[in-house]
Amino acid sequence: MNIVFLGTGTSSGVPVIGCACAVCRSSDPRNKRRRSSLYVQAAGQHIIIDTPPDFRDQVLAFGVRRVDAVLITHAHADHIFGFDDIRRFNEVQDAVIPAYGSPDTIAAMDRFFPYVHQVAKPGLSYPRVDFRTVTAPFAVGPVHIDPLLVEHAGIETYGYRLEADGRTLGYVPDCQRLSAAVVQRLRGLDCVILDGLRRKYHPTHFTLDQSVAELQRLGARRAFITHMTHDLDYETTAQALPSGIDIPYDGLIVDV
Asked: Which pTM was predicted?
């Protein structure tokens, strides 16, 4: 199982528009954060988790050439508003691409992108997508996927647990609380990636310290914090984290 961090930032991205803080002005490329998205290659499948507004730039910058399925965590703009660019993969692959999400998420996708159900006329291009509502474990080819209902901003939100070729990955980019049942599903994995917005309290996201505490409780072999604001400088934050927990940067490739 191989993953690429396509984006590691929160909804504003980093640098933030109109901000002159040290992180936004930083020359360290690891402080440039597109909105959060992950590319997973496992058991011959190529899976995107979330299509943020930066999606086109992400796939061009990091060489994504195939998408077999899309997993959607929730219907906030910073996680779905690049979805239209899936149509280029339809054209290249000449295939309909399945997109999975919770009942509320798929209902929202139908509202935001109603034209995906139209039959394309000559000269026009639409995403060719099979929206699939999931509430229980499912599979994309040999990849077993468990949708995990988490608390975030009062909107129906999933994290995902993926398993393939004897490797396990947990991805929860937006979360303010994990239930006991979700903790059980995420415990002891090969890799867990968890929301850690900033140091200061936030009502709908884990703080950095909360994320560290959760990751230590989960006990993954490798752990990463994502969905970060400009409050977190890469080098300073990375050096202060306990052993076994890291922060990623856009374009980081990890063999799980």
From this structure: 0.97
